[in-house]
Amino acid sequence: MISRTPYRTLSGTSRLAGVMGWPVSHSKSPRLHGYWLAKYGIDGCYMPLPVEPDNFQDALKSLRNLGFSGVNVTIPQKEMAMPECDELSNRARRIGAVNTVTFAKDGRMLGDNTDGFGFIENLCQEAPNIDFASGPAVVLGAGGASRAVLIALLDEGSPEIRIANRTRKRAEDLATEINDPRINVVNWPLDPASLADAALVVNTTSLGMVGQPKLEIDLEGLPQTALVTDIVYAPLITDLLAQAKKRGNQVVDGLGMLLHQARPGFHRWFGIDPEVTPELREFVLLPD
Ligand code: ATR
């Protein structure tokens, strides 16, 4: 008798989701969600959806009309998704961008941003003793990723956040907009004093990524107890992390942020809060 197992196919009631972006070919999300769908034996599909920015609004509505459960939205469409949503989560509104859209049964589009969640969950999984309230955080960069990280750290009770950005004005504008007295803009490059009593250092810039310039930073004076993390995950161990590790600081790489940020969408669309495991990390990093 023929067995269904090697021929597992979609059914007439498969749940559909995907990632929209332009380009989208670099996205690890189809592989990541595909792994979870297979692991949990879910009748569903998660696909790459290359959509040019000009077609974004139409595409989003079409996916809803096609019966999709939801989509992830990536660069450059994270901001474009905001006005399209009928409802925004508090964190999406505060971050000013949407990365997870769920199509409700009544046709409403619900926008969320799970980047800050992914950032925090990654640190909590990899450094279970982390106490975000234990000391100042130093955040490098003032782009979209920085904004999600800042809001998440504030929500976790960080007592002070120092932002340093090449373009100081951008950091100042971000601080003004978030309007929390715990945020202070400091010099770029960093003065050693900015690191002296830090509990956490986060790189949210693209520096250190494959093909990008190196992040030049002097960690002299950073307490040994400080945790250093990078949202760059290609390479997995950036120069920043290697430098920090060498001097004895605990480090957490950025891959987990990508994996954890995907959990809320998968949970809503496919009904299971999936696990981030060492095997998943390995699987996502396998060459194409
Ligand atoms: P994302 O949404 O991923 O955060 P972004 O908004 O383009 O991307 O932000 C990129 C960040 O990396 C910014 O903080 C940027 O600094 P500027 O605001 O001065 O542009 C930082 N960055 C990129 N290239 C850099 C470089 N060569 N030197 C210093 N900072 C750099």
From TrEMBL:
Keyword Oxidoreductase assigned: yes
Protein EC: 1.1.1.25
Entry binding sites for NADP(+): G141, A142, G143, G144, A145, N165, R166, T167, R168, K169, R170, I231, G254
Residues noted as binding shikimate in the record, renumbered to the chain: S27, K28, S29, T74, N99, D115, Y233, Q261
Domain Shikimate dehydrogenase substrate binding N-terminal per the UniProt entry, residue ranges: 19-101
Domain Quinate/shikimate 5-dehydrogenase/glutamyl-tRNA reductase: 132-206
Assigned keywords, A-Z: Amino-acid biosynthesis, Aromatic amino acid biosynthesis, NADP, Oxidoreductase
Pfam families noted in UniProt: Shikimate_DH, Shikimate_dh_N
Catalytic activity: shikimate + NADP(+) = 3-dehydroshikimate + NADPH + H(+)
Assembly with partners or alone: Homodimer.
Similarity comment: Belongs to the shikimate dehydrogenase family.
Protein name: Shikimate dehydrogenase (NADP(+))
Name of the coding gene: aroE
